[in-house]
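FAQ

Q: What does a record look like?
A: Structure on top, sequence underneath. For example:
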């Protein structure tokens, strides 16, 4: 019997605005900030306080919704989602329910099977909860994310309200995914998008972007959906992919054995590489949603929508497409650049600033330069070598003024000192030597110094020529034009052979 996995995704994105969703408290890094330092009576849920909508949060939400091709509701309604938990001081979360900000968008993902359109069901605004830290009896602090429950070992729990009231965007898809690979491709694109739009840092491990897949399995050919299980606490793409694959297998095994899947919420245990049951799934009616009486309907004018649309940057999938079509990059290369906007911009600026071809520029940007960035913990946005300076270095190599090996040394130097390639080459006298007579004498000298190697070359061990080539280059202080040396070496070795 064959089964078909069916998956839909709910993604929560913290919007990194100046202030919180309904009060003036700053949005702080919830990992490094001192607990409860960004809290006021509004986000602490004191009676008698009133929320005010943060316009920047709406603007950010519009950017994402419009980039996803959604229809924006000119009027949307905030609603109270009621439940009790210590990290939700008001006893309800302000969210949007029946009339969300946006509906019906889409993302086209790229997988090994080709392109596929994933439909976005809705995009709505809400506020984040606080954070709980459960402390075990032995005194070891164990942090659990949003909604995780205390265990039997919990002695007491700490509440940090810095995150309570941080603007949150929820993006919900239709159940359009059929594999863990598709889920990952979507999540990567969405992460790239929110980073491009300046809405979120994309740090999954910090919990600022939380991906919750709903997974079910059905018999191939069946149209009704199977019972779904939702996975929480996935804080990396790898965990996401593995968690989904794990649940698919688990469901199939249950169905094969004649059992039924229970609807529940599960967590992902990174150590065991397995899911564990957290709670049986609540239904929407448990939350007793009703319109938020303290907030007027949210009105978004056509002019506002237009302004946001006109100011959108070129989106990750558009850059990706263009790099494949215009520059002939492979899909993996194009996506490698497109997922980091600054890398894509850097590559294109370097390409346009010089006369080197796509392959050369790509190789230097994603090879030598990227390793320097990685080694120094920098990104393209803080790269000490500008795209124009890199292009100037590539020009020196293209014109034969320096060779590749020298080019690498010079780039390292540029990275360290911030000096231009031309200045470093002039200062250190690194200009490549192409003079044929001079190189010819260096080759002759080298062969004379290594009669044994020349003899073994003659005896048929032709790979010795590589070693001899290295000796000549060393004599020239690495500055010799390698093509000229190679040709001259082969010529002289052949002559010697012929004369013997
Ligand atoms: P809930 O109200 O429990 O959050 P929704 O119906 O709003 O459930 O759906 C939440 C997410 O789960 C959506 O992305 C949706 O596409 C997906 N989904 C719903 N039912 C199923 C199912 N049976 N199998 C897989 N995904 C599902
Ligand atoms: Mg849900
Ligand atoms: Zn506040």
């Amino acid at each position: 019997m064959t089964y078909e996995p069916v998956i839909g995704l709910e993604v929560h994105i913290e919007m990194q605005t100046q202030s919180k969703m309904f009060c003036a408290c700053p949005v702080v890094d919830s990992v490094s900030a001192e607990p409860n330092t960004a809290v006021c009576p509004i986000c602490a849920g004191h009676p008698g306080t009133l929320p005010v909508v943060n316009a920047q949060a709406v603007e950010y939400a519009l950017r994402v919704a419009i980039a996803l091709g959604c229809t924006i509701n000119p009027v949307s309604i905030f609603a109270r989602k009621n439940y009790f938990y210590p990290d939700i001081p008001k006893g309800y979360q302000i969210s949007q329910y029946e009339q969300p900000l946006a509906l019906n968008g889409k993302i086209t993902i790229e997988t090994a099977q080709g392109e596929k359109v994933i439909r976005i069901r809705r995009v709505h605004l809400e506020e984040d909860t606080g954070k709980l830290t459960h402390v075990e009896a032995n005194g070891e602090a164990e942090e659990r994310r949003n909604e995780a429950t205390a265990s039997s070992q919990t002695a007491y729990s700490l509440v940090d309200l810095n995150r309570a009231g941080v603007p949150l965007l929820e993006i919900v898809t239709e159940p359009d995914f059929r594999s863990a690979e598709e889920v990952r491709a979507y999540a990567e694109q969405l992460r790239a998008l929110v980073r491009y739009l300046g809405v979120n840092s994309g740090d999954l491990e910090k919990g600022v972007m939380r991906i919750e897949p709903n997974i079910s399995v059905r018999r191939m050919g069946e149209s009704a959906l199977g019972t779904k299980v939702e996975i929480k606490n996935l804080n990396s793409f790898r965990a996401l992919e593995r968690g989904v694959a794990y649940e698919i297998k688990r469901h199939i095994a249950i169905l094969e054995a004649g059992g039924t899947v229970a609807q529940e919420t599960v967590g992902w245990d990174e150590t065991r590489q397995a899911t564990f049951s957290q709670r049986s799934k609540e239904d929407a009616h448990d939350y007793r949603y009703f319109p938020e009486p303290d907030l007027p309907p949210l009105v978004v004018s056509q002019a506002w929508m237009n302004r946001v649309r006109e100011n959108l940057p070129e989106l990750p999938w558009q850059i990706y497409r263009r790099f494949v079509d215009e520059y002939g990059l492979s899909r993996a290369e194009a996506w490698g650049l497109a997922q980091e906007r600054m890398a894509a911009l850097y590559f294109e600026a370097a390409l346009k600033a010089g006369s080197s071809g796509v392959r050369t520029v790509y190789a230097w940007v994603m090879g030598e330069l990227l390793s320097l960035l990685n080694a120094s913990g920098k990104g393209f946005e803080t790269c000490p070598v500008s795209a124009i300076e890199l292009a100037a270095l590539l020009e020196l190599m293209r014109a034969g003024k320096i060779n590749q090996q020298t080019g690498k040394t010079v780039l390292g130097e540029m990275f360290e000192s911030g000096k231009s390639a031309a200045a470093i080459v002039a200062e250190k006298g690194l200009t490549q030597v192409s003079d044929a007579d001079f190189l010819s004498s260096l080759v002759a000298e080298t062969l004379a110094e290594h009669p044994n190697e020349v003899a073994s070359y003659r005896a048929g061990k032709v790979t010795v020529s590589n070693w001899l080539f290295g000796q000549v280059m060393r004599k020239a202080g690495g500055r010799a034009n390698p093509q000229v040396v190679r040709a001259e070496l082969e010529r002289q070795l052949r002559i010697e052979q012929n004369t013997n």
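Q: Is there anything notable about this one?
A: Residues 314-428 form one domain.
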